[in-house]
């Protein structure tokens, strides 16, 4: 579920503005004074703390020093939010050894990005302790994923080779049956589209292995998996994380991620057919109820059917701010009963056998 963020600030207006801005992403705990904050946080430690320039009757800097004296809270990441970037404040920040801070007025997106960066930084640093093959799969895929976002922003072709190389590392982990460790190490990562794409890429390559594809083909479909939702990078995060029903215009915008992905792919001269099939067809359904084209069973080949099954399975078992992750066996039950006419049941049954055979399919910690 949602990460917990504390805002410690004497300024009630700022506390409310922060709670409002973070509503769809995090559970916010507001505190007006250092006593209330330390007491509350000792009972229920947050994942990150936002500290305003005034805390109770003293300063945010004093609060940060108090926080560092509290053993169980001292290692928590925090972001200092200052009113002005004047010399005195900048000196104070430097003396406290703070490198990351925000200056008012800041954009909501700057706040959300700063929080994500801190939360993810801790998780990504923990990857250092993994065996080389797993570290390569995670670091490589995250770098590739971020470089996709950079290339999209600068209007360049997609870095297909970098993505394929990172997917080759994922396939190595899958073939060694170690993917449960990957999922454990990304389960709290805050970039939901990356986590979804990594899980997708892992599951579809496992599916490929089970139907007898050679490694080269597994890497190709893993690459399609990593890129299947790249069009979502152009959709506002608030909409991607929205709780509850979408309005018709929001649904239209969400659905547009498939055509956006196709457009982005077209900037590359040679996109392998398998990659294009996954990107284009993963929301099509056998009964014609899918999008963007409402294709029916005879028009959907085996890979398109696998792509649809993996997308639904990942969506149901992913953790999102607005919902809990379903256990793998519950997801399969839902897909077999409620989506009988939409998904290829024979392939679904095959996936179920492979996945329920592998421990830890939905991302729970691997056995010690
Ligand atoms: Fe999608
Ligand atoms: Fe997806």
Protein described:
This protein is an alpha/beta fold and 368 residues long. The chain folds into 2 domains: 117 residues, 3-Layer(aba) Sandwich (Rossmann fold), CATH 3.40.50; 228 residues, Hypothetical protein af1432, CATH 1.10.3210.10. Helices cover 56% and strands 8% of the residues. It is built from 16 helices and 7 strands. Strands 2-1-3-6-7 form a 5-stranded parallel sheet, sandwiched between helices. A two-stranded antiparallel ribbon has the order 4-5. The longest helix is centred in the middle third of the chain and has 22 residues. The C terminus is likely disordered.
CATH superfamily of the largest domain: Hypothetical protein af1432
Number of helices: 16
Q: From the 3D coordinates, which CATH architecture of the largest domain would you assign?
A: Orthogonal Bundle
Would you count the extended β strands for me?
7
Poorly predicted spans = 362-368
Strand order of the largest sheet: 2-1-3-6-7
Fold topology:
Elements: E1 3-8, H1 12-22, E2 26-31, H2 34-43, E3 48-51, E4 54-55, E5 58-59, H3 60-69, E6 78-82, H4 87-95, E7 101-103, H5 108-126, H6 132-153, H7 160-175, H8 179-186, H9 192-210, H10 215-227, H11 237-240, H12 248-265, H13 273-281, H14 302-317, H15 328-337, H16 345-357
Parallel strand pairs: 1-2, 1-3, 3-6, 6-7
Antiparallel strand pairs: 4-5
This protein binds fe (ii) ion (2 copies).
The site of one fe (ii) ion has 5 residues, from loops.
């Amino acid at each position: 579920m949602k990460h917990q963020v504390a805002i410690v600030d004497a300024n009630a207006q700022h506390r409310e503005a922060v709670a409002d801005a973070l509503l769809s992403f995090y559970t916010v705990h507001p505190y007006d004074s250092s006593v209330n904050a330390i007491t509350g946080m000792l009972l229920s430690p947050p994942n990150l703390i936002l500290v305003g320039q005034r805390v109770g009757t003293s300063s945010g800097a004093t609060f940060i020093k108090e926080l560092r004296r509290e053993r169980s809270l001292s290692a928590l990441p925090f972001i200092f939010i200052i009113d002005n970037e004047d010399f005195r404040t900048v000196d104070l920040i430097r003396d406290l050894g703070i490198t990351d801070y925000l200056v008012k007025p800041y954009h909501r997106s700057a706040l959300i990005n700063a929080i994500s960066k801190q939360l993810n930084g801790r998780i990504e640093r923990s990857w250092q302790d993994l065996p080389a093959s797993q570290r390569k799969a995670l670091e490589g895929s995250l770098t590739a994923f971020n470089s996709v976002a950079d290339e999209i922003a600068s209007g360049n072709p997609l870095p297909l080779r970098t993505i394929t190389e990172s997917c080759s590392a994922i396939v190595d982990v899958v073939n060694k049956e170690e993917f449960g460790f990957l999922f454990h190490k990304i389960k709290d990562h805050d970039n939901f589209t990356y986590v979804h794409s990594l899980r997708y890429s892992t599951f579809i390559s496992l599916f490929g292995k089970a139907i007898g594809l050679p490694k080269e083909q597994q890497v190709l479909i893993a690459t399609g998996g990593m890129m299947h939702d790249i069009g979502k990078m152009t959709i506002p995060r608030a909409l991607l994380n929205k709780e509850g029903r979408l309005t018709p215009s929001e649904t239209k915008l969400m659905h547009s991620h498939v055509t956006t992905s196709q457009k982005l792919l077209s900037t590359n001269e040679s996109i392998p057919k398998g990659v294009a099939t996954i990107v284009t067809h993963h929301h099509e359904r056998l009964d014609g109820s899918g999008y963007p084209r409402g294709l029916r069973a005879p028009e959907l080949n085996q890979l398109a059917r696998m792509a649809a099954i993996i997308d639904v399975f990942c969506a149901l078992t992913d953790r999102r701010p607005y919902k809990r992750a379903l256990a793998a066996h519950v997801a399969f039950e839902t897909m077999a009963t409620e989506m009988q006419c939409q998904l290829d049941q024979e392939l679904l049954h095959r996936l179920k056998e492979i996945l329920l055979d592998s421990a830890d399919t939905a991302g729970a910690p691997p056995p010690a």
